Amino acid sequence: MQDNITKLFKAIADPTRRDIFHALVIATSALSITQISNQFLMTRQGVTKHIKILNDAGLVQMKEDGRNRFCFADPKPLKEVNKWMQFYAQFWDDSLDNLDNYLKTKKDA
Amino acid sequence: MQDNITKLFKAIADPTRRDIFHALVIATSALSITQISNQFLMTRQGVTKHIKILNDAGLVQMKEDGRNRFCFADPKPLKEVNKWMQFYAQFWDDSLDNLDNYLKTKKDA
DNA sequence: TCTTTACGCAACTTTTTAGTTGCATATTAA
DNA sequence: TTAATATGCAACTAAAAAGTTGCGTAAAGA
Description:
The structure is a homodimer. By secondary structure, chain A is an alpha+beta fold.
């Protein structure tokens, strides 16, 4: 229903999910759902939903171990986001060109 | 209400807005609202709303000229997105470390 | 075995987002 | 001056997202 890049952007567009992802990236070990939830004010179920979205985007992976589900970050999918951005990077420092073009348009009209 | 980075991520999380942004980046001149709208199936007002969100995020700027509002892309704010990503880039190629840590966790438990 | 812990699932509410229609207004062209 | 064009604004609908409560269940510990 949604393409990967959209899933990725939507996943990281939410501040809570960026926080969860960050916590997992800097964690020295995988963290259980409960351990993650304890770092946030919202309920465990709320956090679980966010983790599911991160998981669907490929940014978080999980390993079941008994009654625990340990989560760990996988930043690799961000490569695709980076690739998307690199195309626009070439316009970062000359984005006033478009303003020039605008002025040209005006002159031509 | 929303921080800049969240505004940016939300702006580019929508496929239509990425399309609008892209069209403006590759355009050889600034485009009016109507010119942009004509490239999409949705109504002009729908497109206008997307442009407003892009404008709030700083990705699109506008110049009024008579009854026209010419829009042009400004990719510079994407630098901040890039900065956000660069932190995680260091983990791209060793993201299995977290899996190792997970296994270590398991062993310790 | 009994209790606690860690979770999933489903139903629900609230808020946000995406998109529409309708109408008013200013600018441009005939 | 009259008609067409480019736009904004407001109200509305529909759908998606964010978050909650409640409950059931399997695993671990006492």
